[in-house]
Design goal:
By secondary structure, the protein is mostly beta strands. Helices cover 0% and strands 48% of the residues. The chain has one domain. The protein contains no helices and 21 strands. The radius of gyration is 17 Å and the shape is globular. The termini are far apart.
């Protein structure tokens, strides 16, 4: 792969009024693997699924302690505590980020998150203390949201993202579609999209993080106070006239 001048590490913050909190730290290694850590991962609930009939098999682990999620260039995705030198939890095989034989970069869903209320503020190294820092600008008041993250090859493409929900699931259209953006790593852009549905008035006590095989991806829809369902979408990708279209389509489960 061509050597990139883009940052290999980025901190990701969220800003609302005068409040600035760190959400994540992303990095990408020379083999294409992407790693993500967060101050909130210590007590997060991690979920993955194996699509099966008549319904998906849900796999759950929680409170791994300080750790990270890794999306290997080979397609394997796993969660591992920092104090565990060997072995992973919830290992899932999926779409490759780099195909070394074909010398191609892959596109894939990374994770979907319903975060607990952000509150971590690195006092000794605030936002933009590092040139590679990236910031999501929230509404005037920071409110609960769902975030969806993709890895997209670092190409000069305009991104068109198509995503829809039933009108019955939304409180206030279009204000429940909160925003989107992207930031670059060594070989990939990390593209993010944020939204809200009904019954998401309160932050969860623990961050809920769902990852899958990178082909289909999970979304979270509130169904009642403290209750939600998970649906899987099968996106379609189209590159034409300098534009990458991601059409998230309808539910596949």
């Amino acid at each position: 792969m061509k050597k990139s001048s883009e940052p290999t590490r980025r901190r990701v913050f969220i800003k609302s009024n005068d409040r600035i909190c760190q959400l994540f730290s992303f990095s990408q290694s020379p083999d294409g693997s992407i790693y993500c850590a967060s101050p909130d991962f210590a007590d997060a609930i991690w979920i993955s699924a194996i699509i099966a009939k008549p319904s998906p098999l849900i796999l759950v682990t929680d409170e791994i302690g300080e750790g990270k999620v890794s999306f290997h260039g080979s397609g394997m995705t796993a969660v591992r505590p920092n104090n565990l030198e060997h072995g992973h939890r919830l290992v899932i095989k999926g779409n490759k980020l780099i195909d070394k034989k074909e010398k191609n970069l892959g596109i894939r869903h990374l994770f979907t998150i319903f975060p607990k209320e952000p509150n971590y503020q690195p006092r000794n190294s605030p936002l933009y203390n590092r040139q590679s820092d990236y910031c999501l600008n929230a509404n005037e008041e920071l409110t609960p949201f769902i975030g969806i993250f993709f890895a997209i090859p670092l190409l000069d493409l305009e991104i068109n993202f198509g995503f829809s929900l039933s009108i019955d699931d939304m409180n206030n259209i279009p204000n429940d579609i909160l925003g989107l953006g992207n930031f670059s790593l060594r070989y990939h852009n990390v593209f993010w999209f944020a939204y809200r549905t009904k019954h998401m008035e309160k932050w969860p006590k623990k961050s809920l993080i769902i990852y899958h095989d990178g082909f289909s991806f999970p979304i979270i829809i509130g169904t009642g106070p403290g209750k939600a369902i998970v649906q899987f979408r099968q996106p379609k990708y189209l590159i034409s006239d300098g534009k990458l279209t991601i059409d998230c389509g309808e539910s596949v489960s």
